[in-house]
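This part of the workshop introduces the protein records we will be handling. An example says more than a description, so a record of this kind follows:
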Amino acid sequence: MRRFFGYILSPIHYLAWGLLLLIFHPLQWIAFNAFGYKVHKWVVDTLNFFLVGSNYLLGNSVKFMNKQDLPIGRPIIFIANHQSLYDIPAMIWFLRKYHAKFISKIELTKGIPSISYNLKHGGAANIDRKDPRQSITEIAKLGTRMKEKKWSAMIFPEGTRSKNGIVKPFQSGGVATLLKKCPEALLVPIAINNSWKMVRYGIFPLSTFERMTWEVLKPIEPQKRSADELVLEVENEIRKALGQLPVGSLQ
């Protein structure tokens, strides 16, 4: 049934996405070049508000749960599992007051209306995964911006999306580089659930009537602990929130 309605509703959803990206691309250009960072960020936030809303065109729901009292004006590293492209708009919109910037693939900085422009001009770290030196340099620059501007970062340490919701092993390199440049950053896990189901049939049709959730978990203070130890703790907290066995548990 979800697949059947997907054939009907997916074209409507994709049309809405395409129009939003095309409309907001020139708005971003005007905002950035005429008014600077603050107005550009407001435009990007507004775009993502509408992108989140487009999920409802498929009958899907978005629930973002944040019961944590997170500090304003302190850099935060938001660390999440990654299930689909649809993870991202909700994180941008609901965490907008923390000025969180993504660590993303450099390939995304070309050819995608609105998205590519924001990645190039909004403060993200755009890494070439084939060039480790460039990747480390870009992430280090983001860490410096976090320290200087009190910005935050969003990172998916799995490195690639999970196609079935099972959390893949987290890599600690990106977090280690950020903490080296911005050791005062707070680590905040986010457990994303069911966004993978939207693309369970591929890019067409999209699945319908799915209940997707984002849950902000208890913050973790670095306290001069190693990045490996910290990231493992984050991974296990996310696994537990999703009802999956922590790393090291008996299978």
Q: What stands out?
A: Residues 2-240 form a domain with the Glycerol-3-phosphate (1)-acyltransferase fold (CATH 3.40.1130). The helical segments are 2-35, 37-53, 87-94, 115-121, 132-149, 173-181, 227-241.
